[in-house]
Design brief:
This protein is α+β, with helices and mostly antiparallel strands. The chain has helices at residues 16-34, 37-49, 55-74, and strands spanning 2-10, 82-90. Strands 1-2 form a two-stranded antiparallel sheet. Helix 1 packs across helix 3 and helix 2 crosses helix 3 (55-74). The chain is globular, with a radius of gyration of 14 Å.
């Protein structure tokens, strides 16, 4: 099985191109904090399978807040913007 994670910026006041730039910047920061795309994907998958008070969820939340702060420091991020992370697995047929 192959795992994936996705990032979505919910920002009603942004255009699609602005949201895409925010999502890309956030993903870059999150991966830099967590040690690359593979480690980020792994943590997202573990966090998705845990209870709300799991250790992976806490680590991901902390990294998520740091990534959002880093993006806010370099890009114009609307106050109503929220970053959402999704995780899923695909099975090759």
């Amino acid at each position: 099985m192959k795992g994936y994670y996705t990032v979505r910026a919910e920002a009603p006041s942004c255009s699609q191109s602005q949201r895409m730039a925010l999502e890309a910047g956030y993903a870059r920061e999150l991966e830099a904090i967590l040690g690359g795309v593979d480690r980020t994907t792994e943590l997202c998958l573990v966090a998705a399978s845990e209870d709300a008070d799991g250790a992976a969820r806490a680590s991901l939340l902390q990294a998520s807040e740091a990534a959002a702060a880093a993006v806010r420091a370099v890009l114009q991020v609307p106050d109503d913007c929220r970053f959402l992370i999704g995780a899923w697995q695909a099975r090759d047929l």
